[in-house]
Structures are given as C-alpha cells and as structure tokens.
C-alpha cells in the first residue's frame, strides 16, 4: 500500500488537532479548580487579617501595621516563616501517621468547596446531595486530628484528638437535622443551587433565616463547634492541653493545622450564606442596570460579578460573629460542651424537624 505525502500530512495534522483538543480539555478542567484554590487562599488571608484587626479593636490595641499597607501581608509573612522553620518529628511517635494527619485535615475541608455556589453558573459540582457531601467530607477532618494526636506519643495531644472526635460527633447530628429541615420545608432538594433558588422567590423575606429561625441558631452553634472556635476550642485548650493535637507539630505541618481551621471557618460561613441568607440573591433588581446603560451583551458578566460580590459580602459580614465571640465568651468545660450538644441541641433540632415535617404534611 502506497501512501502519498499529502495523505501522511493530513494524518499528522489530524493527530495534532486531536492532541491539542485533549490538552485544551485538561486545561479547561484544571482552570476552575486552580481558580477556586486561588480564591480560597486569598479568602483565608483576608480572614486572618480581619480577625487580627477586629481583635485589636476589641482589646483597644494596635493590630498588624508593618507588613504591607495596614498589615494586610502579615498572614503571608507568618506563612512564609512557618514554611522555612525546622520540621521536628517525635522520636517515639508514629512518623507516618504524624505526617498524614495534617494533610487529611486540609484535604477533607478543601473538598467541601466543590459544592458551594458563588453564583448560579459558578459551582464546581452541582450535586443532588451537595449539602450532605459537605457534612460527610468534613467529618473526615477529625480523623486526621485523632491520627495526629495518637501518633505524637503525647498524652496532651492524644486527649486533644479524642476531644476533637467527640466534639465532631456530638455536633454533626444537630447540624445534619437542621439541613434536613431546610430540605423538607423549602426546596425538597439537597442541591446547594436549588436551596438558593428556592429562597429567591420572595426576595429578602424568602430567606430561610425567617422560615427556620430555630434551625439557624442551632446551625450557628453547631458550626462554631465544628470549627473549634471559642468557646468550643476544647481540643486545643492551651490552659489544659498545652495546644492539644498540635503540641508536637512545628513548621509547615503546624501551618497546615492553622490553615485548616480558617478554611473550615470560611466554608461554614459560606454554607450559612447559602442555606439561610439567600446565597447570591438580593432583593434589589441589579440586572436592570445593564439594560439602563445598554450593555445587554455583558449582562451575564455583570450579573455573575454582582452575585459573587453579594455571596462574599454576606459571608464576611457573618464572620464577625465567630470573630467577636472569640474575645467575648469564656471557654466551656468538656462536660458542658457535650451536654450542650446531646441534651439541648439534639432535642431542639429533632423538635424543629418534627415541626417542619408536620407543617409540610398539613400544607399537602
């Protein structure tokens, strides 16, 4: 069989085009993921700066002011310092588990961001069980903390890991029941996009905050406990356990725990915005601005930008609550923390679910 030069060139050009299509496909898969990771990193840096500035204001002192304008680069400077610090390992600990623990804590929280919608078109994975995926994936993080505490061969660290596991189990159940109440009453779906869309029918008064006020309070307390924020920071209580499961860590591994706590705080605030505060929707008809200035072709770009801005604005306004409670409320004891979860929040969330189910049946 004789093949001419033109035929060989056509075959080569065909394979070149197909390989380029494969490369472009991989790039278009990686671009949203890398963009989300970049946005999350910037969001965490902003949270660290906000917490330091708000804490300084509450305590009437000067916050960070030398690293960059208004101290905005202080968190980046601290991260760089931890990156170059010596990474110490316990001589009698389990080195493998000791190294895996921080990674599990960070990766499990990062996976939760895949189901968060910043706008109707901006969600990495719109799943029918999006909210339950967040609860299931975030429940893996305490396993990493328990591994870290056990592998450190330190009694303080081991107690901190046990407290983290007990605290997570205690407060995940009320949090899940609150999410189930929203699904039954409002949207009949566990998709985060559907939950936000169900709140957009009546504008500001359609938010689940007004439909599920009891569930909102229980969800708020449970999310603070899941994030191990004061007054629920029992796994790392410095007065009792030195630093809990973090005691033996240094360098970048300690930095991973630090990042994981703020990642968890940000994702919890985003879910509060999505579930109870209407997500990217607002009662002001901003979409008519594009028609007013005759930029109809850019309407979807303008709407998407406004949607992202509204979601982040609600999220960061809500973040003032966990930041201020850190410097307002005293730390609970471990027995008080478990009693609050099992004896108060669990019956209240069950009653809220029963009440929601009754309303749903009567409305049919």
UniProtKB/TrEMBL annotation:
Localization (cell): Cell membrane; Membrane; Plastid, Chloroplast thylakoid membrane
Signal peptide (residue range): none
Listed Pfam families: NADHdh
Annotated InterPro entries: NADH_UbQ_OxRdtase_su1/FPO, NADH_UbQ_OxRdtase_su1_CS
Protein name, per record: NAD(P)H-quinone oxidoreductase subunit 1, chloroplastic
Transmembrane segments: 26-50, 95-116, 122-147, 256-280, 300-323, 344-362
Keyword Plastid part of the UniProt annotation: yes
Major site of localization recorded for this protein: membrane
Catalysis performed (reactions): a plastoquinone + NADH + (n+1) H(+)(in) = a plastoquinol + NAD(+) + n H(+)(out); a plastoquinone + NADPH + (n+1) H(+)(in) = a plastoquinol + NADP(+) + n H(+)(out)
Assembly, per entry: NDH is composed of at least 16 different subunits, 5 of which are encoded in the nucleus.
């Amino acid at each position: 069989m004789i093949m001419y030069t033109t035929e060989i060139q056509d075959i080569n050009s065909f394979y070149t085009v197909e390989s380029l299509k494969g490369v472009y496909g991989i790039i278009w898969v990686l671009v949203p993921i890398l963009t989300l990771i970049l946005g999350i990193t910037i969001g965490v840096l902003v949270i660290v700066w906000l917490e330091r500035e708000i804490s300084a204001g509450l305590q009437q002192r000067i916050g960070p002011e030398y690293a960059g304008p208004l101290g905005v680069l202080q968190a980046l400077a601290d991260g760089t310092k931890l990156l170059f610090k010596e990474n110490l390992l316990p001589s009698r600990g389990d080195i493998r588990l000791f190294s895996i623990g921080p990674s599990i804590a960070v990766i499990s929280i990062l996976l939760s961001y895949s189901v968060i919608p910043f706008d109707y078109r901006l969600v990495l994975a719109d799943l029918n069980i999006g909210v339950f995926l967040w609860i299931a994936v975030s429940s893996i993080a305490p396993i990493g903390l328990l591994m870290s505490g056990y592998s450190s061969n330190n009694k303080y660290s081991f107690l901190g890991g046990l407290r983290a596991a007990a605290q997570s189990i205690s407060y995940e159940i009320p949090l899940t029941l609150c999410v189930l109440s929203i699904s039954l009453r409002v949207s009949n779906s566990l998709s985060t996009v559907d939950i936000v869309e169900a709140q957009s029918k009546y504008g500001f008064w359609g938010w689940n905050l007004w439909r599920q006020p009891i569930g909102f309070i229980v969800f708020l307390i449970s999310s603070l406990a899941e994030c191990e924020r004061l007054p629920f920071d029992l796994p790392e209580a410095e007065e009792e356990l030195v630093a809990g499961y973090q005691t033996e860590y240094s360098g970048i591994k300690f930095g991973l725990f630090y990042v994981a706590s703020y990642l968890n705080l940000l994702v919890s605030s985003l879910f509060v915005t999505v579930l109870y505060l209407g997500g990217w929707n607002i009662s002001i008809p901003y979409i008519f601005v594009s028609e007013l200035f005759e930029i109809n072709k850019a309407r979807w770009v303008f709407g998407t930008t406004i949607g992202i801005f509204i979601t982040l604005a609600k999220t960061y306004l809500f973040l003032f609550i966990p930041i201020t409670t850190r410097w307002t409320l005293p730390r609970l004891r471990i027995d008080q923390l478990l009693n609050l979860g099992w004896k108060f929040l669990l019956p209240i969330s069950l009653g809220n679910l029963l009440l929601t189910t009754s309303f749903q049946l009567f409305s049919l």
